Amino acid sequence: MDRKTIDALLNKIDASATHEGDARTRAIVNRVVRDLFYTIEDLDVQPDEFWAALNFLAEAGKSGELGLIAPGLGFEHFLDLRLDEAEQKAGLAGGTPRTIEGPLYVAGAPESVGHARLDNGDEPGETLVMRGRVLGEDGAPVGGALVEVWHANHLGNYSYFDASQPAFNLRRSIRTNADGTYSFRSVVPIGYSVPPEGKTKQLLDSLGRHGHRPAHIHFFVSAPGFRKLTTQINIEGDPYLWDDFAFATREGLVPAVKKEEGAAGKPYDVSGQFALIDFDFTLVHDRQGLPSTEVERVRAEAA
Questions:
Q1: What is the DSSP code string of 86-138?
Q2: Chain segment 212-259, per-residue pLDDT in tens
Q3: Can you give the residue ranges of every domain in the chain?
Q4: Which residues lie across from 115 on neighbouring strands?
Q5: C-beta separation of 225 from 144 below 8 A
Q6: pTM of the full structure
Q7: What is the DSSP letter of 128?
C-alpha cells in the first residue's frame, strides 16, 4: 500500500470525529497512528505480529512493567536529553546532571533535618555514609532544600514493592541545614536485573540485550525558586557502570567511594570501617517558558 492510500485512510479516520475533542491529544494520537501505519506497511507486519505486540503491552501493563520497559527502550533518557537541550537553549548551565527517575519512588518517606539513617540496622552489606551540600548555580548554599533518597537492598529489591521489607526501608527525606548540608547513613547498594520471568526480560531477550542496572542511589532534590532535580549517583567499580540497560549513567554522577574508619564515623554514629561518598548537588533557578521539571506521573504512595 503506498503512502497516498495510507494517508487517505488516515484522513478518513480523523474525519470520523463528531466533535473537536482535545486538540493536543488528537494531534499526538494521529501522528502516532500514522507512524505505526507506515511501520506496518514498510516492515510488512503481519496480523499475528500486531496482536502479539498488543497482547504483550496489555500483559506488561497488568504486571506493572511498563515503567521498566520505558527506560529500557531509552524513552526516559530521551526525555532527559530533551530537557537538557531546552535548558541549554535558554542559557541555563551549571546544575548537577539529571537522569531517570525509574518506576520505584514512593511518596511520604519520613522527613528529618540535616541527617537521616535509611536502614534499620538489619541490612547486610557495607555501611555507607553519603554527605554533601545543596548549592545554587552561584555556589551559595540552599538551606531548607528537600533531598529525597531511595535505593535497593542487598537483593536488589525496593521497599513497598517488596513486602518483606519494613515500611520506607532505605527511603528518607532530608531537609538541608541552613548551610545547605545534608548527610545520611545506609548500606552500599548493589546492582540488579529486571525480573527474570517478566515481560521486560522477554523483550530485551528478543532485542539481544541484557537487563542489568549498576548499583545506584536515586534522588529528588527540590527547593522553592529552583528547578527540581531528578538524578542518581552510581557506585564506581560496578561492572555495568557504563552499560546500564536503562541508559541512566552520566558523567558527573559517579563520585569517588572512599574507605574511612575511626573518628571519621563518629558524627554519623558509625564505628569501624565504612564507605564514604562526598557529593554536592547544584540546583539552577527556574525560569519562565521552560518545560516543567515537576513531571506528573502515577507514583506509589504508602497508605
A1: HHHHTT---SPPP----S--EE---EEESEEE-S-S---S-EEEEEEEEEETT
A2: 999 999 999 999 999 999 999 999 999 999 999 999 999 999 999 999
A3: 3-45, 69-301
A4: 183
A5: no
A6: 0.96
A7: E
The Cα-based distances of 173 to 103, 117, 136, 221, 261 in angstroms read 18, 10, 19, 10, 26
Question: How do residues 198-209 score in pLDDT, each as one tens digit?
Answer: 999 999 999 999
What residues form DSSP beta bridges with 216? 234
302 band by pLDDT with thresholds 50, 70 and 90 = confident
**Strands of 171-175's sheet in order across:** 111-113, 171-175, 146-150, 216-222, 229-234
Terminal C-alpha separation, the chain: 53
Contact 199, 233 (CB under 8 A): no
How many C-beta neighbours within 10 Å does residue 9 have? 12
b/e map 255-268, b = 16+ CB within 10 Å: bebeebeeeebeeb
Q: Count CB-CB contacts under 10 A for residue 39.
A: 10
* Superfamily classification of domain 69-301: Aromatic compound dioxygenase (2.60.130.10)
Q: Using one digit for the tens of pLDDT, what is the confidence trace for 45-77?
A: 999 999 999 999 999 999 999 999 999 999 999
| H/E stretch holding 233 | strand 229-234
Q: Catalytic residue positions?
A: 158, 192, 213, 216, 218
Strand partners, 274: 260
